[in-house]
Write a structure and sequence with these properties.
single chain, four-stranded antiparallel sheet, disordered N terminus
């Protein structure tokens, strides 16, 4: 993603799915946080949560795709009184320094009505408790690139790729070694220079698209 000045925006995203249960007045509030890179991904995650707990009373959700200034948001009270559940969850999500995230709070009614204020507090607390347990990772811009080089420097190349956090996505061993990699864009030129030096120029780079992953 880029901001209005075309600078690359890097931001935190969920590293792994996270699920935390909060109990309020005998009701169970089960908050599930997942990464969602698109609205379609968020919708799929919501469906998956419904499938996992089909007997629940409500599956309230909120999502934030992207990161300011370019964000897509959505929410639903899923049958709870209007404004008592979806908006509080979205407010918690907006208050985090995290993007590409969908939160589903699943409620199993415990027999005690909480009232409007009680519902707002319960859904807020449930979302907050889940975010407190969530582990995040940095979403960084990477460059797709193909490398070809002699076998004799393969060990050196793979070591350098690891040092620069480059991901090997595919490899083949024919007349030369060919690797398809995804390398962080901010250190790609340094990596390219070091690899050229190690290979004494006997390495071929084919740069492909740039993306954020």
């Amino acid at each position: 993603m880029q901001d209005r000045n075309n600078a690359v925006v890097q931001y935190n995203v969920p590293a792994n799915p996270c699920r935390v249960e909060t109990r309020v007045a005998n009701s169970r509030f089960i908050a599930t946080i997942r990464r969602a890179d698109t609205v379609k991904d968020a919708q799929a995650a919501i469906r998956e949560t419904r499938k996992e707990m089909p007997d629940a009373n409500h599956h309230v959700y909120a999502y934030k795709i992207g990161y300011p200034p370019s964000v897509s948001e959505g929410m639903s009270d899923d049958g709870e009184p209007s404004g008592t559940s979806g908006p509080p969850i979205l407010a918690v999500l907006r208050g985090t320094d995290i993007g590409d995230t969908v939160v589903v709070v699943t409620r199993y009614f415990g027999g005690t009505k909480l009232g409007t204020g009680g519902l707002v507090a319960a859904y807020t607390k449930s979302a907050q408790n889940a975010f407190a347990e969530l582990k995040v990772e940095r979403k960084v811009q990477r460059i797709d690139c193909t490398l070809s080089y002699p076998y004799c420097i393969h060990e050196t190349v793979t070591r350098m790729l690891a040092e620069y956090d480059a991901i090997i996505e595919d490899q083949s061993f024919e007349a030369d070694v060919t690797l398809a990699i995804r390398a962080p864009s901010d250190t790609f030129k340094s990596l390219q220079k070091e690899l050229n030096n190690a290979a004494a120029g006997n390495i071929c780079f084919v740069q492909n698209a740039t993306d954020i992953k």
